[in-house]
Design goal:
By secondary structure, the chain is of the alpha/beta class. Helix 2 crosses helix 5, helix 4 crosses helix 5 and helix 6 crosses helix 7.
C-alpha cells in the first residue's frame, strides 16, 4: 500500500498560504485547514464557546454567540496569559477535528494530506506529526500590504499579528521547502506549486 504523505503548510499572515492550499487541493491533496477548524469552534454554537464564556466572561461573546475577535485580540495583546488560556480551550478541539478529518481522508484513499497550520512553527507538537514542511515566505512589507487589502484590519493590528507570530528566520529554519511568494503572478505561483506537488505523487 502506498504511504500517506503528511505535508505541513505554513506562512505568516499575507504570505499566500490559503491560495497555495487551494492549488494543492485542486491537484488532489486532502487539505485540512487548522485555522478554519479553529474559527468553527469559536463561531455561533461552536464547541469552544461555552468554555470561553466561562473562562473570560460574557463580554467576549457576541450577541450571535460567537467569539468577539476584536475584543479578544485586544485582551491578548495586553495580557499574554490570555492567549495561553484561549489556546488551552481551542487547541485540543482543533486537534481532535484535525485527526478526524485526516483519518477520513486516508480512509477515502487520499495519499497526500496537507495540513494548513498558521502557527505550525510556534507549536510544540506539529512538526513531529509531519513528513515535510512547506513554508510560504515573503517580506514583512508585502505581508502588511496584502493583509491590509483583504482583512479590514488596521496597519498597527497587522503589525501586532506579525510580531506575535514566529519570526521569518525561525519559520525558514523549520522548512523543508520554501516558496518565496513575492513578485509572482498567480500562474507562476501555480507552476511552483505543481513542481512541489509532483514530489508527492499529485
Amino acid at each position: 500500500m502506498q504511504a500517506v504523505i503528511r505535508l505541513g503548510l505554513t506562512g505568516g499572515i499575507g504570505s499566500g498560504k490559503s491560495t497555495v492550499a487551494a492549488m494543492l487541493g485542486a491537484l488532489g491533496a486532502a487539505v485540512i485547514d487548522a485555522d478554519l477548524i479553529s474559527r468553527q469552534t469559536t463561531a455561533p454554537g461552536g464547541q469552544a464557546m461555552e468554555l470561553i464564556r466561562r473562562e473570560f466572561g460574557p463580554a467576549f461573546v457576541t450577541s450571535a454567540g460567537a467569539l468577539d475577535r476584536d475584543r479578544m485580540r485586544e485582551r491578548i495583546f495586553s495580557d499574554p496569559q490570555a492567549r495561553q488560556r484561549l489556546e488551552a480551550i481551542v487547541h485540543p478541539l482543533v486537534g481532535v477535528e484535525t485527526a478526524r478529518q485526516a483519518q477520513a481522508a486516508v480512509a477515502a484513499g487520499r495519499r497526500c494530506l496537507v495540513f494548513d497550520v498558521p502557527l505550525l512553527v510556534e507549536s510544540a507538537h506539529w512538526r513531529q506529526r509531519l513528513d515535510q514542511v512547506l513554508v510560504l515566505d515573503c517580506t514583512p512589507e508585502v505581508q502588511v500590504e496584502r493583509a491590509l487589502s483583504r482583512s479590514g484590519l488596521s496597519r498597527s493590528a497587522v503589525e501586532d499579528i506579525i510580531a506575535a507570530q514566529a519570526s521569518r528566520a525561525t519559520r525558514l529554519k523549520a522548512a523543508d521547502m520554501v516558496v518565496f511568494n513575492v513578485g509572482l503572478t498567480l500562474d507562476e505561483l501555480a507552476r511552483e506549486v505543481q513542481q512541489i506537488a509532483q514530489r508527492f505523487g499529485l
